[in-house]
TrEMBL record, chains A, B:
It is found in: Cytoplasm. This is Pantothenate synthetase. Its EC number is 6.3.2.1. It comes from Hymenobacter canadensis. The gene is panC. Keywords: ATP-binding, Cytoplasm, Ligase, Nucleotide-binding, Pantothenate biosynthesis. It is an enzyme of class 6 (ligase). ATP binds at residues 30-37, 147-150, 176, 184-187. One of its GO terms (molecular function) is ligase activity. It comes from the Bacteria. PANTHER family: CYTIDYLATE KINASE/PANTOATE-BETA-ALANINE LIGASE, PANTOATE--BETA-ALANINE LIGASE. Homodimer.
Amino acid sequence: MEILHTAAALHAYTENCRRAGQRLALVPTMGALHAGHLQLVEAAAEACDVVIVSIFVNPTQFNNPDDFRLYPRLPEADAALLGPAGCTVLFLPSVEEMYPQPSVLHFDFGPLERVMEGAHRPGHFNGVATVVSKLFHMCRPHQAYFGQKDWQQVAVVQQLVQDLSFDLELVSFPTVREPDGLAMSSRNRRLSAEARAVAPRLYEALEQAAAAVRSGLAPAQVQQQAAAYIAAEPAFTLEYFEVADAQTLQPVATREPGRAVVLCLAAHLGGVRLIDNVVVR
Amino acid sequence: MEILHTAAALHAYTENCRRAGQRLALVPTMGALHAGHLQLVEAAAEACDVVIVSIFVNPTQFNNPDDFRLYPRLPEADAALLGPAGCTVLFLPSVEEMYPQPSVLHFDFGPLERVMEGAHRPGHFNGVATVVSKLFHMCRPHQAYFGQKDWQQVAVVQQLVQDLSFDLELVSFPTVREPDGLAMSSRNRRLSAEARAVAPRLYEALEQAAAAVRSGLAPAQVQQQAAAYIAAEPAFTLEYFEVADAQTLQPVATREPGRAVVLCLAAHLGGVRLIDNVVVR
């Protein structure tokens, strides 16, 4: 596995791969890798000749400076995991390398980002779209891999790819969970033992809500029940719990037959912000 | 010269060129070609192995439906000019080909587009940035050629390339003028004989203003004198005349030594909107 630190080196590397007719995959990450990330890398290695994993804690997508500061950074441990998983190139740039000048351009994804993460983290998806565009241009991938735990992110990046005619395929993968149901997340490392013990309640709330949606309960009631279930454990502060159209991400008042809905939540637990979602098809 | 109509065909063509190690140039145009365009094509042919000229009257950059409807469209005449100038591929897509779905994403370039064309044509630079991004992704050029008559457009596209780390070089070319000084423009074809006869007054106003700036006259006075000179011919309605920093495009109150200024104007003449500019270094 090669480790590259500069955009110029990555540009040159991927240009050569393209010229050699190789298929390239990109797995963009913020590091502190877990089994969810590694599953993306393994899938990418199955499908492509070259797998580039980027590890970059992107400052422009953090609206909360503490969240940025405390985000786990473990590049050596990450590197040790990536080789065996099938990573060919680890791209590990500095902030200065990714942003030689501050960005002027700002992305707006309209209704797609007026809800959930976009509504609660102002500027988040502008930062995501900016860094993903840069990585796409540096890596020239045929495929880019994303995890569905960030459901809204996948929707925004899909819109970016479509609206700007990026010549690549976006591959999204189901959320990988701990045995007790907690969605794998780099932020889980920051949970205390007490917080970790109650954390699976979020997925329980989602599973109960999914069952309620399937049984025909109205979204407003589903939302209310889920919020009450989470609030019963006082360690949680719920930021949002939404029943939304799985494509448009807009809240649904009544479930339309044939349209998938996604149940999405964000909650604070012992100073850590967690998100999760479940799709009902 | 090959003529391609679909994004898929262009994608495949340019991928092959890249694999063969050829250097690609893109000259994006809206057609109704004049000597200014052809100079870009000739320069591109000097520098690169493959020259792709796109002709696409991009609906998303027009805020005025009449301007879009009346924009000259002469694909056969254009095609006849392009081969001899060194064009390898003419890309002639339909609106449906470029926009299979309406765009959701919106670009905002901040202060760069709060002035001049951006201020007077709401949404214009979003449309420009969108279509240019699409063309960059379809053409995979090493170089992209733009004319300086659209000074603000060059600045916006430069910002786009920088902020999204597009791996290409932007080449901008000085405005080509008619013998009487009128800036070449596809819209000039729409001028009546009477309008055409007075049209050079715009460049005269710019040249006088440039001399006044060089002589140390304050920008506010320069602006006033230029507006008065243009208004002396009642066929003109001046939309703006700005003395701006050539890089930031923000209006300058006093000229700073060592910083180039650009004098930019837009004016209506016989139902046609014309723009022009002159740089003072």
